[in-house]
Design goal:
Mean pLDDT: 88
Oligomer: single chain
Strand order of the largest sheet: 6-5-4-8-7-3-13-14
Distance between the termini: 35 Å
CATH superfamily: (Glycosyl)asparaginase
Binding site for substrate: 219-222, 242-245
Largest sheet: 8 strands, mixed
Active site: 191
InterPro entries: Ntn_hydrolases_N, Peptidase_T2
Radius of gyration: 19 Å
Bound molecules: N-hydroxy-L-asparagine
GO molecular function: hydrolase activity, acting on carbon-nitrogen (but not peptide) bonds, in linear amides
Protein name: N(4)-(Beta-N-acetylglucosaminyl)-L-asparaginase
Helix content: 25-40%
CATH architecture: 4-Layer Sandwich
Low-confidence stretches: 1-38
Structural class: alpha+beta
């Protein structure tokens, strides 16, 4: 990434009470409702993402800091990881399914509750951008497999070979035993989920992954599922997840966390409760990882996970920091 100069956060903001669309579905709604949002003193542009993704969070922060929207910040930010061939859980370089095909999942959600997702899409390097196009240019929320890929070509995306030599080599090695035993921590999980608040106080989020390494063909996890891998409600906050998607889907984890924040929990408390719900259903298990992160309308953040080892990065006018997450299970 180019070296960039990060300007000090201006903190410019708008009105205390504004009229925003009140949405009951993922697509357009014409009903208007007056809601209370941050006033100019409390608006705090900020980016938060799963794991220690400095370059991705810096890219998103630059968009915010130059006046861009949270939606643009999310797309530009997570694309950094999609384009990083060394990240073997996202985009190009992602580990393949057990047949050797790299299949990508991503979703994005904006301040108005609009959302778009692509599932199990092959040959396209930036699924987050295709998800955004699904959101903005189609009457649908999700496109899967060949349909998603075809749609991407129609929108001008290029066909790209996503399987790098490194991921191919590891897959060939894996095939010798073909044992599906996901590695617990970051070695197998560096999916990026990202949430951002812009200078208007508007929240957006995105999540992008190649999913679990050596998954069954056609398997889709939580990451592109709105409510599971990601949820944003501009009146309350947002949440996103990394880890074993099956367990996140079972508790509709990100939606749960946003609803807990709506009921008054802090982002930290809500993430902890999200993990506890999962562990309550998995009392005998200690062999998988899930990490949640969350942000509320005030720009407060939190994160929690099952196994030690998860961290999340925040980037704001106050600087950037990698936050080691507390965990349900201790080392
Ligand atoms: C999935 N949640 O497909 C993703 C995997 C993941 O870092 O987070 N990897 O289940």
């Amino acid at each position: 990434m180019k070296r960039r100069k990060f300007l000090k956060n201006s903190g410019v903001a708008t009105a205390g009470i504004v009229s925003t669309p009140f949405l009951t579905s993922c697509k357009k709604d014409t009903t208007k409702k007056t809601v209370q949002v941050n006033d100019s003193k409390t608006i705090r542009p900020i980016v938060i993402c799963t794991w220690n993704f400095l370059n991705a969070s810096a890219e998103a922060w630059e968009v915010l800091n130059t006046g861009g929207s949270s939606l643009d910040a999310i797309e530009q930010g997570v694309m950094v990881e999609e384009n990083d061939v060394n990240n073997q859980t996202v985009g190009t370089g992602g580990r393949p399914d057990r047949d050797g095909n790299v299949t990508l999942d991503a979703c994005i959600m904006d301040k108005d509750g609009n959302c778009g997702a692509v599932l199990a899409m092959q040959n396209i390097a930036n699924p987050i951008s295709v998800a955004r196009k699904v959101m903005q240019d189609t009457p649908h929320v999700m496109l899967a497999g060949k349909g998603a890929e075809q749609f991407a070509y129609e929108k001008g995306f290029e066909k790209t070979d996503l399987l790098t030599e490194q991921s191919k080599k590891e897959w060939l090695e894996w095939k010798k035993t073909s044992e599906y035993k996901p590695i617990i921590n970051i070695e197998n999980h560096d999916t990026i989920g990202m949430l951002a608040i812009d200078k208007n106080g508007d929240i957006a989020g995105g999540c992008t992954t190649s999913g679990m390494a050596y998954k069954m063909a056609g398997r889709v996890g939580d990451s592109p599922i709105i409510g599971a891998g990601l949820f944003v409600d501009n009146e309350v906050g947002g949440a996103t997840a990394t880890g074993v998607g099956e367990e996140v889907v079972r508790t509709v984890g990100s939606f749960l966390i946003v609803e807990l924040m709506r009921q008054g929990k802090s982002p930290q408390e809500a993430c902890e409760e999200g993990v506890k719900r999962i562990m309550a259903k998995n009392k005998e298990r200690n062999d998988f990882q899930i990490g949640f992160i969350a942000i509320n309308k005030k720009g407060e953040t939190g994160g929690y996970c099952i196994q030690p080892g998860f961290s999340y990065r925040t980037y704001s006018g106050e600087g950037h920091v990698n936050n080691p997450s507390d965990s349900f299970l201790k080392a």
